[in-house]
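FIELD: query
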Amino acid sequence: MWVFWLIAAGVFFIIEMATIGFLVFWLGIGALLAMVTSFITDSILIQVIVFVVTSTLLLIFTRPLVNKFIKVPKETVTNAYSIIGKKAIVVKEINNVEGDGQIKVDGEVWSAKSNTDEVISKETEVEIVEIDGVKAVVRKISADSKVTA
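FIELD: result
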């Protein structure tokens, strides 16, 4: 029966290498301990109990400790959504009725529309509040925030 537990441990360790959760590893350790138990007793019930109990205890007591040391990177905002919250300059008057308007943010020109249907004149400073399709939705920062070159 020790061969079964050795193969099970190997399978668990291979699965662990393919995942990032550090969860299946403890099942592999439990299988190894069950394998050691198989050298002491031929009772399959005792071996299964050792596997279940050790795997469960390892999961309960060591997983929180491991999670403290393994830093899972926070989700990084990329692509279009990375400009939300940034300030931009209107380079072409924004008029929602005509579907016109452009802003410049981080050196890139984006199509834009106002979040309030008001016309926002050229060279006004705006803040990007969301992305709607391929357009940045902006709001005026203040009534008289014209940028001088």
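FIELD: remark
Residues 33 and 69 are 25 Å apart (CA to CA).
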